[in-house]
């Protein structure tokens, strides 16, 4: 706000001495870009959330059964986030081994989550809860698809980090640790999205 | 380290092979050209579609293959291509990519690889869209608004493969736009060079920057709507499909809400028109101040107006839905917000006029296009105020009044800015000037011609001529004179269409034979004109990034030798203190 009051035409035509005061934010660029992306994804999931709320009120809504595996998957996602967080802590401490293990754990649990979601789909189908039967079903499949695809995208970044960590003897640790930190943030975001949407589906 | 300092010291990776130089380039300037050429090419397809439509309306039955279905397919594809694949792509992907790094003094966008990906995703989306022309059933004829339930039901052309390809193409475009958008916003925020505060940015950057933020926040709505409609169409879901009988058959859908789609679509759709308008606003400000040798009047409020228009654009969407059957009190609310958004827009118009007032105006071709923009956008905006009021929208909705309105504000005005911008920045891109005589012909034919097309069209709307009809004979409520007017409009449209070939040929001819322009033919102040090489080489600035000392509007500063002071010109002893504007 203060910057917007600047009278850019008045005679203070000097240059600020240090680079730092020029920038609007002191965040490093990749971190800023990820937060921007997360804002976009928030809008996306919020719209689905709102559509769900609107549709929920209509008379023909029949809630789905909740396979126990959904809770298991939620646990997988929590452990996955925990693994990513541990990797982030290890990276900022410079501990390569810790990063290796934590990253593998984080990714492993994320993959388990995704496979578990596919299994839940299969179970629901076997119980007769098809996508087209009922709006609650349709929303469940929509939500799990969009969320799952975004987690898959995150796994692409994760895979790049795994490759960097294991193939290169003397990797640029700073760049890797930035990427690991960003993965952790992204993972926590998707966890929160899942908890909110899962909670929403449970509450109906 | 700041991003700029970091970038300045990075070794430059010059592309080595022909492929990485001209095709799979990560250089923002090449990507900008790729976006622009692709957008113009697909825009030409949509332009030809408009000729076919006008021939059908003006001279019904000219082409026996234009039956109602084909007509609706032309309406749909013309609209979708022009709004999304031409205007959005050219302002954000074309102008945004070219101007932002140069105007902020950066070497390139902050994520060049993602930038390149965004172009190829855009190209893929265009190819998917065009492929719908060739599938059984043809492209969708649901109107660019794609309203369900009709969009996915038989009876609407393209309800088979056509609509599916359209929705997939839109989803791909949104992915491309998101990747590009992340780049543009992050580059403006993070990669500005030394001395370049946000309030020293040219308004072109502000316009594109705000439009990109709108795009990032609004496109998810279209994405959600498209995915839900795909689920309805392909997987039998009922997000938007009510219980319905189609072609005598009771369908399996039930309980869905078509109005939900309209809300979702227009939540995207209204910001979309500002995504097209805001870059145009910014570019016009810069062209007018450069070619009138005068600082933009009221720079700060121009910035605030851009921001406020952007914010307000998210709370006016249901003015597209007054006749949808939604709660009338919603109409009351949205009419108010629609009237409010006219205020910052009007302020911008006043400031453009006040910039011209007592300016040292050079009626160059870019300047002519910019002044024409102010004229056509004002008129188009005024008719928008009519339509923004619920009561008067009721009889005018779905008539040619609406068609005339949105063509003036979307089809005439931003396109004039696209032309003006290309005439203005072509010398920077190529080192050559576009031919001035042909430019004048192009301008006058286009400007007068588009008025001849759209001004009378408002009257057609008044007499009640509905839109999206493939022919108008045999309706008692439409007078004979309306048909004469249709012929007039058609002839004008074909003439304007022909005039565009002058422009296309000019772009090609001047590239080879145009007058050498030098680095700064317009004697402009903003950074992009201060590059050491023209066209700018890879990395734009040579070994050292520019340093900025002033805003980009130091034109005709009293007491100075030249009538402009570039942004990177340091303060010197001979320059008196600039008095407050």
Please give the structural blueprint.
The complex is a heterodimer of chains A (204) and B (581).
Chain A: H1 29-56, H2 68-93, H3 96-126, H4 135-167, H5 173-202
Chain B: H1 3-9, H2 18-23, H3 28-58, H4 68-103, H5 112-131, H6 161-190, H7 203-235, E1 245-246, E2 249-250, H8 258-291, H9 299-312, H10 328-356, H11 365-388, H12 390-396, H13 400-430, H14 436-462, H15 480-513
Antiparallel strand pairs in B: 1-2
Helix pairs in contact in B: 3-4, 3-5, 3-15, 4-6, 4-7, 4-8, 4-13, 5-6, 6-7, 7-8, 7-9, 8-10, 8-11, 8-13, 9-10, 10-11, 11-13, 11-14, 13-14, 14-15
Number of strands of chain A: 0
Query: Which runs of chain A of at least 5 residues are low in confidence (pLDDT < 50)?
Result: 18-26
CATH architecture of the domain at 68-202 in chain A: Up-down Bundle
Which fold name fills CATH's third level, the topology of the domain at 68-202 in chain A? Four Helix Bundle (Hemerythrin (Met), subunit A)
Gross morphology of chain A is: flat
Structural class of chain A: mainly alpha
Shape of chain B: globular
Q: Radius of gyration of chain A over alpha carbons?
A: 22 Å
CATH topology of chain B, which one? Answer: Cytochrome C Oxidase, Chain A
How many helices of chain B? 15
What is the N-to-C order of secondary-structure elements of chain A (H for helix, E for strand)?
HHHHH
If helices are DSSP runs of H or I spanning 4 or more residues, what is the number of helices of chain A? 5
Largest interface: A-B, 44 and 62 residues
Compute the average pLDDT of chain B: 94
Q: Which strand-content bin applies to the residues of chain A?
A: under 5%
Largest sheet properties of chain A = none
Structural class of chain B, by secondary structure, is mainly alpha
Share of residues in helices of chain A: over 70%
Largest sheet of chain B: 2 strands, antiparallel
Runs of chain B with pLDDT <50, length 5+? none
Distance between the termini of chain B: 35 Å
């Amino acid at each position: 706000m203060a910057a917007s009051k600047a009278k850019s035409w008045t005679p203070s035509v000097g240059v600020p001495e240090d680079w730092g005061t020029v920038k609007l934010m002191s965040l490093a660029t990749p971190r800023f870009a990820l937060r921007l992306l997360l804002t976009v994804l928030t809008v996306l999931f919020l719209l689905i959330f709102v559509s769900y709320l609107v549709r929920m009120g209509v008379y023909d809504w029949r809630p789905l059964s909740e396979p126990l595996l959904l809770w298991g998957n939620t646990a997988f996602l929590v452990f996955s986030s925990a693994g990513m967080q541990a990797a982030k802590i290890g990276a900022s401490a410079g501990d390569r081994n810790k990063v290796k293990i934590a990253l593998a754990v984080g990714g492993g649990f994320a993959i388990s989550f995704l496979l578990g979601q596919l299994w839940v789909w299969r179970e629901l189908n076997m119980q007769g809860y098809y996508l087209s039967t009922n709006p609650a079903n349709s929303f469940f499949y929509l939500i799990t698809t969009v969320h799952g695809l975004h987690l898959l995208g995150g796994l692409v970044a994760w895979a790049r980090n795994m490759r960097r960590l294991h193939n290169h003897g003397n990797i640029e640790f700073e760049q890797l640790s930035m990427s690991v930190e960003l993965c952790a943030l992204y993972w926590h975001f998707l966890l929160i999205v899942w908890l909110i949407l899962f909670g929403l589906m449970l509450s109906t | 380290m700041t991003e700029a300092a970091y970038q300045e010291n990075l070794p430059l990776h010059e592309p080595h092979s022909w492929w990485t130089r001209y095709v799979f380039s990560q250089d923002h300037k090449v990507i900008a050209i790729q976006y622009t050429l692709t957008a113009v090419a697909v825009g030409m397809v949509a332009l030809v579609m408009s000729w076919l439509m006008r021939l059908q309306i003006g001279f019904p039955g000219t082409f026996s293959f234009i039956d109602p279905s084909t007509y609706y397919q032309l309406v749909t594809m013309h609209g979708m291509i022009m709004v999304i694949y031409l205007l959005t792509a050219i302002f954000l992907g074309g102008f945004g990519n070219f101007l932002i790094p140069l105007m902020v003094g950066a070497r390139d966008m902050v994520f060049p690889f993602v930038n390149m990906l965004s172009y190829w995703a855009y190209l893929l989306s265009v190819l998917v869209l065009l492929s719908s022309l060739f599938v059984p059933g043809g492209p969708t004829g649901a109107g660019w608004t794609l309203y369900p339930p009709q969009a996915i039901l038989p009876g609407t052309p393209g309800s088979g493969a056509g609509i599916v390809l359209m929705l997939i193409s839109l989803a791909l475009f949104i992915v491309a736009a998101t990747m590009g958008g992340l780049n543009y916003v992050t580059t403006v925020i993070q990669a500005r060079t030394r001395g370049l505060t946000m309030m020293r940015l040219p308004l072109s950057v502000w316009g594109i920057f705000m439009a990109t933020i709108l795009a990032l926040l609004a496109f998810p709505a279209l994405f959600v709507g498209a995915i839900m409609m795909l689920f309805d169409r392909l997987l039998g879901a009922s997000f938007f499909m009510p219980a319905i009988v189609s072609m005598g058959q009771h369908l399996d859908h039930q309980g869905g809400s078509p109005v939900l789609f309209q809300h979702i679509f227009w939540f995207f759709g209204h910001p979309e028109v500002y995504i097209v308008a805001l870059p145009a606003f910014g570019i016009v400000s810069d062209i007018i101040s450069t070619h009138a040798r005068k600082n933009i009047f009221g720079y700060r409020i121009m910035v605030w107006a851009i921001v406020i228009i952007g914010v307000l654009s998210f709370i006016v969407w249901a003015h597209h839905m007054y006749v949808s059957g939604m709660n009338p009190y919603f109409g009351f609310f949205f009419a108010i917000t629609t009237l409010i958004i006219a205020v910052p827009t009007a302020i911008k118009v006043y400031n453009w006029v006040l910039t011209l007032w007592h300016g040292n105006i050079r009626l160059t071709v870019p300047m002519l296009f910019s002044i024409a923009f102010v004229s056509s956008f004002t008129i188009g905006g005024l008719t928008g105020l009519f339509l923004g009021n619920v009561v008067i929208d009721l009889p005018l909705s779905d008539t040619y009044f609406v068609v005339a309105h949105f063509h003036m504000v979307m089809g005439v005005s931003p396109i004039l800015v696209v032309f003006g911008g290309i005439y203005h920045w072509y010398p920077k891109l190529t080192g050559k000037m576009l031919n001035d005589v042909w430019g004048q012909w192009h301008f006058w034919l286009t400007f007068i011609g588009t008025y001849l097309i759209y001004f009378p069209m408002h009257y057609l709307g008044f007499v009640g001529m509905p839109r999206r009809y493939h022919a108008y004979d045999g309706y008692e409520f439409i007078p004979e004179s309306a048909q004469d007017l249709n012929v007039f409009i058609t002839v004008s449209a074909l003439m304007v269409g022909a005039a565009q070939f002058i422009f296309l040929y000019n772009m090609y001819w001047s590239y080879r034979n145009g007058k050498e322009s030098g680095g700064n033919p317009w004697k402009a102040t903003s950074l992009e004109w201060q590059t050491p090489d023209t066209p700018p080489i890879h990395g734009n600035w040579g070994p050292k990034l520019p340093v900025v000392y002033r805003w980009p509007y130091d034109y005709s500063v009293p007491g100075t030798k030249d009538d402009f002071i570039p942004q990177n010109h340091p303060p010197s002893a001979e320059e008196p203190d600039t008095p407050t504007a």
